[in-house]
Specification:
Blueprint: E1 22-27, E2 37-41, H1 55-65, E3 74-76, H2 77-84, H3 92-95, H4 99-111, E4 118-121, H5 125-132, H6 137-153, E5 169-170
Parallel strand pairs: 1-3, 4-5
Antiparallel strand pairs: 1-2, 2-4
Length: about 170
């Protein structure tokens, strides 16, 4: 059984059930004149030794084991926040989990070349807000559609030898 137990519908997470989905993490701009971006990684990055646990493991369970998850699906932390509401705890805070700490650790690993991923730049301010605000599901869906077209052309982004020093791929 996973860390969360059954949800309101009696469904359990099955961690690793969909190993070939993607996790999209917000990359904040380093300078005011830069646009934010998205880092797309394998959810297994959440299990890296430097990622705080159980934070990383719980986020991994939701990403790869949610009953509705589909192969090749791109999932953002805000999506997971919405999905978490179906479980008895309902919020990250009530679980004592910090998904942002896990995400920051994954981004740090990627920047240091320890985890592969694909960087997409050129997000609008609305795109960046949608990645932080669970209520902006429609804006996230539009961003997901734009990125999905590019991801479908990439061969498993988590297997690509990329690092944080790579030029952005534009999502526009």
């Amino acid at each position: 059984m996973g860390l969360l137990g059954p949800n309101a519908h009696g469904e359990l997470l099955q961690p690793g059930r969909v190993p070939d989905c993607y996790l999209g993490l917000l990359l904040r701009a380093d300078a005011p004149d830069q646009a934010p971006g998205v880092l797309v990684v394998s959810p297994t990055g959440l299990l890296h030794p430097v990622v705080p646990q159980p934070d990383g493991a719980l986020v991994y369970e939701l990403v790869t084991g949610h009953p509705d998850r589909q192969p090749q699906e791109l999932v953002f932390l805000a999506d997971l926040t919405v999905e978490l509401r179906a479980w008895p705890y309902g919020t990250w805070a009530r679980l004592g989990v910090d998904p942002q700490a896990a995400a920051s650790a994954v981004i740090g690993c990627w920047r240091h070349g320890h985890l592969p991923g694909l960087q997409y730049g050129g997000l609008t301010a609305e795109d960046a807000l949608a990645l932080e605000r669970p209520a902006m599901a429609l804006a996230r869906a539009w961003l997901r559609d734009r990125l999905a077209r590019q991801l479908s052309q990439a061969d498993r982004p988590w297997q690509l030898p990329t690092s944080g020093h790579r030029p952005d791929n534009d999502v526009r």
